[in-house]
Amino acid sequence: MPSDRAAPPPLAAALYDGLDAGEIRRRTGSTEVLLLDSVGSVLDVAHQRATAGAASGLLVLADAQTAGRGRNGRPWHSPRGAGLWVAALLRPKARPFTGALSVRVGLALADAIDALAPGAAPRLKWPNDVLVAGRKAAGVLCEARWTGASQGWVAVGVGVNVAGPVPDEVRGTAIALGEADGGVTRVALLEALMPRLWALAARPSALDAAERRAVLDRLWMEPGAEPPVGVDGDGALLVRAPDGSLARRVMPG
């Protein structure tokens, strides 16, 4: 469970790659931008601010994380200056299926990378990773908080290995975008990603037909794996069972 203790101090010079919070807010369409130096997790800070009443559109941006996390609590390597460590606060108009939102963010991230580095050919490793050249370049984690039966907000965490370095122990499975396109910068990726992400707050709960097709078009599969036959509205994969019937896959495996 994320901590709701006091947030860490902001970046000393209040700059991120030479830009202040106001300029980042203008370039990304955010309602508020919080710049941090080194923080445990940007997701924790987003939840803290949401609890205090922050509006949808808050962008939490850190130069480094000391306790970044991925799905199932796995640690996320987040060294200073090496990547984009972001949390975005959404208060969706419609209550989204968690799976649908994770898939949507993954698609938005792949589209943003495509816009900057089409040669990277990003693929979506369902449900929440983005791969380049078969290795993990980015991950998404969506965490909802509830007030009684109502959803209060969703904090969307995005971690992207932009410049690296990638630790030696994971080089076989992880990659920095700079290896595919050395011209990609953190600020350029922010500008490409955030407007796409903010637009998700107005989407209906379920994935539409175009989004489901986009998942299949972007989908990365293990070599030799049987591809799914479809995707349902909440982002689950539809796979053919041994008896010929359709089954829903809601977790990787």
CATH class designation: Alpha Beta
**SSE string, helices as H and strands as E:** EEHEHEEHEEEEHHHEEE
Strand content: 25-35%
C-alpha-based Rg, rounded: 18 Å
What structural category characterises the helix and strand content? alpha+beta
Main sheet characteristics: 7 strands, mixed
Please name the CATH topology: BirA Bifunctional Protein, domain 2
CATH superfamily: Bira Bifunctional Protein, Domain 2
CATH architecture: 2-Layer Sandwich
Description of the molecule:
By secondary structure, the protein is α+β, with helices and mostly antiparallel strands. It has one domain (15-226): Bira Bifunctional Protein, Domain 2 (BirA Bifunctional Protein, domain 2, 2-Layer Sandwich), CATH 3.30.930.10. The protein has six helices and twelve strands. A hairpin with a 3-residue loop joins strand 6 (123-125) and strand 7 (129-132). The protein starts with 14 loop residues before the first strand and ends with a strand.
Short description:
The chain has helices spanning 21-28, 42-51, 98-116, 177-180, 186-198, 209-218; strands spanning 15-16, 19-20, 32-39, 58-65, 83-90, 123-125, 129-132, 135-147, 150-161, 230-231, 237-240, 246-249. By secondary structure, it is an alpha+beta fold.
Helix and strand arrangement:
Elements (H helix, E strand, L loop, with lengths): L14 E2 L2 E2 H8 L3 E8 L2 H10 L6 E8 L17 E8 L7 H19 L6 E3 L3 E4 L2 E13 L2 E12 L15 H4 L5 H13 L10 H10 L11 E2 L5 E4 L5 E4 L4
Parallel strand pairs: 3-4
Antiparallel strand pairs: 1-2, 4-5, 5-9, 6-7, 7-8, 8-9, 10-11, 11-12
Helix pairs in contact: 3-5, 3-6
